[in-house]
Amino acid sequence: MSILTFLDYAGVALFAATGGLAASRKQLDFVGFLFFAATTGIGGGTLRDLVLGGGPVFWVKDPTYLIICFMVGIFVFFTGHRVEWRYRLLVWLDAVGLAAYCVMGAAKGLAATGSPTIAIVTGTMTAAFGGILRDLIANEPSILLRPEIYVTAAMAGAAVFTGATLGELPLWLSSSLGMAAAFGLRGGAIHYGWMLPRFHSRPGRPTEEAMKGKSRRKG
Amino acid sequence: MSILTFLDYAGVALFAATGGLAASRKQLDFVGFLFFAATTGIGGGTLRDLVLGGGPVFWVKDPTYLIICFMVGIFVFFTGHRVEWRYRLLVWLDAVGLAAYCVMGAAKGLAATGSPTIAIVTGTMTAAFGGILRDLIANEPSILLRPEIYVTAAMAGAAVFTGATLGELPLWLSSSLGMAAAFGLRGGAIHYGWMLPRFHSRPGRPTEEAMKGKSRRKG
Amino acid sequence: MSILTFLDYAGVALFAATGGLAASRKQLDFVGFLFFAATTGIGGGTLRDLVLGGGPVFWVKDPTYLIICFMVGIFVFFTGHRVEWRYRLLVWLDAVGLAAYCVMGAAKGLAATGSPTIAIVTGTMTAAFGGILRDLIANEPSILLRPEIYVTAAMAGAAVFTGATLGELPLWLSSSLGMAAAFGLRGGAIHYGWMLPRFHSRPGRPTEEAMKGKSRRKG
């Protein structure tokens, strides 16, 4: 379990750092940094533990996770404003955290249920929810509605890890493959603007207009 | 239990379809469709299971629900843009899903606690939360703040089902009555613009202004 | 436990009242008042119970809490529009609710885990989450992004209560000290505009611009 424990702490610390950088962009006060660091750092894992059931969530059982978030929040409070390329840093740390957390989430889901479907979903959810929550409470446009690959990278990493684990590869190898898949896809999305094709798209009209008549040509 | 199981699958599939249609309006990519379909399809039931306690949520115990969401998401990905009246379809499917889910949620709450108050609340919550979550993550104006009957329809359906069940009507009849109440009210709201009276209303001032003095006439 | 039970009911009722006042500002209908009163009244405690694990949340075990929320919502429906200084009232009731709920949340967290870190976090979370949720669903600017002291007051109250309890002060005294700390800080923030220092701040650029080059001077 030591690789997974390391990934867990690393994922929490990296997402906490992105939360602190978001707080820095919003010019929040000291407690605002702690709040954003903790919410982003433990948000995804909290949702994962809640849906899997089985008692208190991970940071209630082991407050070390919270203390990591707070220390990271304090560090970013004193240093974040000095980083000229703060938003780029946030985005890249988020990519590494995403890679660590999708493997960790899939491992927990697979251990708890044995179902590969659940493992992929808990991996994706653990990795993606922290960033979604950070954007939501920071009132930034959600990563979900941007065209770049994000949830896809988390899902790919979780799927690769789950497949490799079911194929009985050793843990260090399946973890590395899962992380490489997630980080490779997300990094390509950040650097080259990779996105999935959208099939045939057609934008939605404003809700008011869309409820009015005159458009029922088919049906 | 077979009527309730059918309603559960139907509610999940219908809400998943509305999530896919929302993704289509937002021109998301393939994984975006899966994400919106799953979040909308299982969101309400997940919240219900969390507050009732008792271990893993329903889709962790039975991944069929997830697979339904994904299949519906894939179907809408390939067909949603072709529907000229996409938003009307979203709204009407949501109404049928609301009717199925308020009965299902009330039945689970009543079975778990025996309390009619809890049954009505879990029914309302199960039915309304998926749509609220969909609007929130799609960044659409929330149905909660629109004047139409929505939460009211869910509450009415849950209350009718709970009352009929306590009155020892057979399950098929109490389910039908509950669904008819919810769908009737919501359908009337969509088609005729039904809304509840608002008593004496007075709009709120912007928060900044409201904190300034000059208005303390009473008190 | 009677002091804590009283604080629990009081916190629920006060936050329910602020939810009702938010519904009044948004000119919602009757069911909208019930929904906002219940969501704001029980939101923080629900999150606390979920992360602590241990079965159904408090209002499922004891529906009295829901009934209090509904009665408060009905009362505000008939009276809220008559209050000229409705938003000021909302803010001050929220401050009293915050004080009651940070003590109650810390007491539950401490009883469940024995960890002071967890107690401070559950206290802060219980007190702050109801208001955050209310602002989110009412589509108001979140209190989190305003410069005033808010989360800080909840955290201070939870910390004072936890410290006093570990120092073996009697319950009535540690509760009073915790509430006084939270209400004093929050009240000062409302009345005098108290805020924490922000160290060296620098606003974030819009996300689009921040991803473009030309700014990588250090690194």
UniProtKB/TrEMBL annotation, chains A, B, C:
Stored InterPro entries: Gly_transporter
Span of domain Glycine transporter: 6-79, 92-162
Keywords (A to Z) from UniProt: Cell membrane, Membrane, Transmembrane, Transmembrane helix
Top-rank taxon, per record: Bacteria
Localization of this protein: Cell membrane
Family: Belongs to the UPF0126 family.
Membrane topology: Multi-pass membrane protein
Transmembrane segments: 6-23, 30-51, 63-80, 89-111, 117-137, 149-166, 172-195
Protein name: Trimeric intracellular cation channel family protein
Pfam (any one): Gly_transporter
Chief site of localization: membrane
